[in-house]
Every structure is written in structure tokens, then in C-alpha cells.
Amino acid sequence: MYVAVKGGEKAIRNAHRLMATKRRGDRSVPGLTLDQIAGQLAIAVARVMGEGSLYDEGLAALAIKQARGDLIEAVFLLRAYRTTLPRFGYSEPVDTGAMLVERRISATFKDLPGGQLLGPTFDYTHRLLDFKLAADGELDTPLTAEVTETAMPRVTDLLSGEGLIEEDVPPAEDTAVGDLTREPLGFPAGRDLRLQNLARGDEGFLLALAYSTQRGYGRTHPFAGEIRYGAVEVEFFAEELGFAVPLGRIKVTECQMVNQFKGSAKVPPQFTRGYGLVFGQVERKAMSMAMVDRSLRCEELGEERTAPAQDEEFVLSHSDNVQATGFVEHLKLPHYVDFQAELDLVRRMRGEWFDRQAADQAAAHEAIGATTTDGSEKEAAE
């Protein structure tokens, strides 16, 4: 129960001014611009866009600046702003097969049609502080090559051609797709809602769940079939025109995990799929999402549900960092009435406990006294 705090408006205004001062920092140092944040903290911006469910690098950069770098607070700000935007409809499914690829790697096949493309990555860098960055000196110009039109089929398509992996059957065109941003989550949840939830879920939470599956909590040992990052075109079907029109391009990371599956009486031994798709270059999140997606398919594949990462309600109910933040941080708000009631209850319970202890001790003393008296009378009689 909350109570009004009288006379706190002045303190709140001063707290906001102090926050603004702390956010700005040393005024002798140039302030951060939104272009600097969007361009140089691109991975943080991508995470905020993904978990905030809004693809806009400028707004995500503004949220990060306003939140002083607190990414969960920035996600909260972006989601709050998102609710004020009008909705015109739903875009067409993006075709990641037609992606303008900047990075494409596979841990399952060395030689792939279209080749491996290392692209921008931390994977082969030394985890040592680069003090040259502190000097902000000139950078070496990256090498470039001619763009080729070589097709880059998905690794899972290659496996599917041999029947070695489960078929990826698209839903019927008239199948209703849930929208987690407009309807509350319910259980059981279809894979459409599960993937939406995971795409918006907290990266750290999903990473921990994915790690747990690798350590044996969920019987999942995956192979990174393919991870690709690049730009895809977003289209919107305009009814008045009768065809889809392009809205622009967004950058996404797609991960397809290949998982072991021993088969069943009706299904031959084959590999199964786990899928992840996120805004920007956030590979760790996409990989974690794909691993958790596969774990949540346990009942669909006839597997026993034994681990947290396989528990749909546990995963989906606790993956949202904005909701989790609300539950945790509301404890900072005044709970004076509740606490006073609890305090009074504990005091009365303690009083009753001490009264019982005193009564028990008195009864024990009386029993000892009676025993002693009976013994003395017997000795006198003898």
C-alpha cells in the first residue's frame, strides 16, 4: 500500500536537476551527440531497439543518453514512447535469404556456397585493453573487395535437401499470428508468441538459460548452423495499391541452431532447429534465443520437460526486463503503512511467543517441585 508523501515536490524537482547535472558530467568535456552514440555504441543501440521493440537508431541513442547508459532504463523509455505511435498495419515477413550480408559464418561446414564472410567481429581479437583508443587516433582503412552476386543458401536448406533436418513448414496464409505488444501473454503460448517474447527478452537472462542447456539442464547440445548479419528490406502491403511497397532496410542478426534429435517411432533420426532473429548485430542474443527456442519445443518433439529452460511459463514470464524492473524497483517506493502493519504483527507475535515460553518454564518448575515433594514424602514414610 502506498501513501502520499507531502512536501516532496521540491525534493523531486531538485533530484531531477541533479540527475541532469550528473548526466551531463564534466562540462569542460564535449557532450555526447546522438550520432556519436548511434555510430560508436551500435551494439548497445541495437540491444535497446530489440528489447524496446522499436527500430529507430536515433530514438534508441536518445534513450541511452537520457538513461545515462542504463540499457534497461533505455529500453523502458523506448517502449513507453512506442505506445504513443500510431499503428498502420503489419509488414510482410522479411526475407533473410535475400539479405545484404555483412557477416556470415557457419560452425558446421567449412566450405559453403557463397563462402564464409567473417565481417566485423570480436571473435578473433585479443581481450586486452587497446590504449590506442584513448588517444582516438587515425584508423587503418579496411580492405575492400568487389561485391559478388553469389547466392548464399542457408545451411539448414542444405541439410533439408538431404532430409537430415526437420522440415521448416511455413504456416498457412490464413493462420492468425499473435501480437505480444497488443495482447497479454497467455499459456500455453504458440511458437509465434514465444519467439516474440524471446526477441524482446533480456539478453543476460536468455544467455544464462542458454548456458544452462549446454551444461545439461535441457539435453540440448547445439551446433551453430549459421549466423548471418546484414540488411533486409521491409515491405508493407498497401491494399489500395494491391501490392507490397518497400519501407526501407533494417539490419538484423539471424541464427539457426542445429540440434541433435534421436527421432521417434514416427520420425526418423534427424536434426532439429532453433531460431533467433534480433535487430542489429547482437549475435550473443540471437544465439541464446535460438537455443532457448529449441529447448521450449521439448513437448512438441516428445521430450520430457525437466529443466528451467524447457519450462514455457518460467521462461516467458521472467524474460522481460521491463516487467522485472517494475517488480523489483517498486520496492523503493514508500511502503510505510504495509511495513507498520507488519511491524505491529511481528511485535504481537513475539509477545505471544515470550508469553508461551514463560508459561512453559513455569509449568516445568511446578512439575519439578511436585516431583521433589513426592520423593521427600516417600522417604519420610520409610
Automatic annotation (TrEMBL):
UniProt keyword terms in alphabetical order: Lyase
One molecular function GO term is:
lyase activity
**What top-level branch of life does the organism fall under?**
Bacteria
Q: Name one Pfam family in it.
A: PhnI
User: Looking at the keywords, is Lyase present?
Assistant: yes
The record, for InterPro entries, names: PhnI (IPR008773)
The identity of this protein, by name, is Carbon-phosphorus lyase complex subunit PhnI
Organism, by scientific name, is Pannonibacter tanglangensis
